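Tokens in:
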């Protein structure tokens, strides 16, 4: 007994003196960004409430980085079915700028795919500092008041209508310009700034440039600046010429100070405007529950039927005094 007590004391002392190693869960602890520090934007899957079928971001003809790398950081993202990867966006903390991402001439098959995804009402999802991108909406109530709501991600494009200026009714238009409205919070308790808001304002712009195209931004002369909703939108026409299938992807960054603290930055997602019922997900969940219930019921019925038939057999009456099988459950 004395030796056991001494061993326990030694174990406690060793645990107190042993070095402690900690680990970090992404998204749990805040990150303070210094001025001009790189802020990474990750891309997630494409989703639609019409088809309920998700697709990989790079399944569409978007601009790609030099190397596409998976960026999932925790188990929750895996269980949620996220397909998180890096992107070609280059953003620095506090730096307001306009950039050209790339220029692509769509193949007819790529234009057809984009046209289909736009008409299927697909949304593009992004992540910055473990915060999903959101699109601001202003909804008018029946009493005349207006409220601000948010939707996750941003629409891939829109279908033209008579209300849309410069659009052809029934045509598919791509949102090829993104305006990132990034909100940050500063406090004397820490150095740098914490990102507390990630909003995206998508725009469709038929970019025009002077002279030949150049990948060097200093030599490229865009004629569609500044970018705004009054510019002609970019139509995706699979039957158009190569010049009509040319897409210039651009983005600009806007930083805004905010009084929202890091612990409260998820509050705006409580006001999501997605009120459509996901029938496919509900039916899928019910089908899985019914399937698992049937399998368990079948296993129990086979086990009970075998035991009952053995108990009713006259040859095994001598063994009835000894309980076995499922009857042992009452003793647990």
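Residues out:
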């Amino acid at each position: 007994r004395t030796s056991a007590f001494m061993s326990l004391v030694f174990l406690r002392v060793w645990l107190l003196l042993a070095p402690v190693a900690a680990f970090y869960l992404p998204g749990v602890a805040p990150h303070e960004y210094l001025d001009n520090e790189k802020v990474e934007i990750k891309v997630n899957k494409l989703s639609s409430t019409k088809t309920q079928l998700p697709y990989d971001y790079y399944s569409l003809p978007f601009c790609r980085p030099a190397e596409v790398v998976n960026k999932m950081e925790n188990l929750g993202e895996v269980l949620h079915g996220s397909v998180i990867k890096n992107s070609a966006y280059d953003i620095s903390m506090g730096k307001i700028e306009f950039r050209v991402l790339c220029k692509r001439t769509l193949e007819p098959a790529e234009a057809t795919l984009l046209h289909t995804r736009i008409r299927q009402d697909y949304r593009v999802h992004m992540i910055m500092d473990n915060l999903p991108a959101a699109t601001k909406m202003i909804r008018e109530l029946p009493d005349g008041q207006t409220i601000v709501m948010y939707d996750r991600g941003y629409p891939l494009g829109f279908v033209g209508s008579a209300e849309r200026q410069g659009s052809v009714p029934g045509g598919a238009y791509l949102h090829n310009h993104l305006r990132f409205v990034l909100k940050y919070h500063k406090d004397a308790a820490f150095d740098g700034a914490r990102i507390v808001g990630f909003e995206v304002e998508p725009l469709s712009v038929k970019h025009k440039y002077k002279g030949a195209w150049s990948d060097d931004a200093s030599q490229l002369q865009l004629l569609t600046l500044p970018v705004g909703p009054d510019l002609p939108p970019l139509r995706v026409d699979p039957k158009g010429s190569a010049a009509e299938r040319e897409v210039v992807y651009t983005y600009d960054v806007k930083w805004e100070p905010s009084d929202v603290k890091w612990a409260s930055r998820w509050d705006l997602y409580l006001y999501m405007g997605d009120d459509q019922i996901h029938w496919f997900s509900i039916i899928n969940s019910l089908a899985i529950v019914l399937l698992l219930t049937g399998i368990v019921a079948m296993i129990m019925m086979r086990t009970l039927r075998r035991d009952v038939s053995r108990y009713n057999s006259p040859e095994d009456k001598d063994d009835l005094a000894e309980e076995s099988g499922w009857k042992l459950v009452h003793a647990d």
